[in-house]
Specification:
It is a single chain. The protein has 144 residues and is an all-alpha fold. The chain has a domain of 96 residues. It is built from 6 helices and no strands.
Length: 144
């Protein structure tokens, strides 16, 4: 019963602390617009090199995060030999997959071409496109 209560309290307080720390930046169109980043990662108008650069930045930041976590993970593995080691492997696996994607989604709006990012922002806000992209401006292609 006590672990359930402490988990619930930590979840609520932790969520409030995270919301306070990120604050206004998590609103759509601001610095940390995660959903815009995900939509730009899926957008075909963003060059593959830009997406790879964002993923490379994500992998680098994940490696830096892992380096900072290593002393704490070693301590937990020593204190709780079986459980700590298993939890360490599980968390490292999750971090190795999710962290680069999260960091890439946060970085790609700043790396993508300005026109594509502006169009994606406008579409997400429900506004008309500010300027047509070169693909839309040329009209439908007619092949013979």
């Amino acid at each position: 019963m006590i672990p359930l209560i402490s988990k619930t309290v930590l979840r609520r307080v932790g969520g409030q602390v995270a919301a306070q720390a990120v604050g206004e930046q998590r609103k759509p169109g601001n610095l940390l617009d995660f959903k815009l980043g995900v939509s730009l990662l899926r957008d075909r108008r963003v060059p593959a090199a830009t997406k790879l650069l964002a993923l490379s930045i994500g992998v680098g930041l994940t490696f830096a995060l892992e380096a900072f976590e290593m002393p704490l993970e070693a301590f937990v593995a020593l204190v709780l030999p079986g459980v700590g080691l298993a939890a360490n492997f599980a968390m490292d696996g999750i971090e190795a997959i999710l962290c680069p994607l999260i960091f890439a989604a946060l970085a790609v709006p700043h790396l993508a071409p300005q026109t594509v990012a502006a169009e994606a922002r406008a579409v997400r806000r429900g506004l008309p496109n500010p300027q047509p992209s070169p693909l839309q401006a040329s009209g439908p292609s007619r092949r013979r």
